Amino acid sequence: MTRRAMVLVLVLIVVAMISLGAYSFSELMFAEYRGARLHERRLQARLAAESAVEYAAARLARTLEDERQATPTAPLDPWRGVLVYESDDPAARARFAVVAPPVAGDETFKLRFGLGNESAKLNLRTLLDWDRQQPGAAQAALMRLPGMREELADALLDWIDEDNVPRPQGAEAEHYQSLEPAYLPANRPPASLAELLPVRGMTRALLFGDDANRNGYLETVELDTARRRSEGTIEESTPFGWATYLTVSSAEGNLAPNGRPRIDVNRPELQLLFDDLVATCDESWATFIVAYRQFGPYLGPAASGALQSAGLDFTTPAKFRIASLLDLIAVRVQIPSAGSRAAVVLACPFENNRDMTRQYLPKLFDWLTTTPPTARTVGRVNVNLACREVLSAVPKLDPVLVEEILSKRGAEAALSPDRRHISWLLVEGLVELEPFKALLPYVTTGGDVHAAQVVGFLDQRGPLARAEVLLDATRRPVRLLSWTDLTPLGRGFDAELLGAEPAGSGR
Question: Is 184 exposed, middle or buried (0-12, 13-18, 19+ CB in 10 A)?
Answer without folding.
Answer: exposed
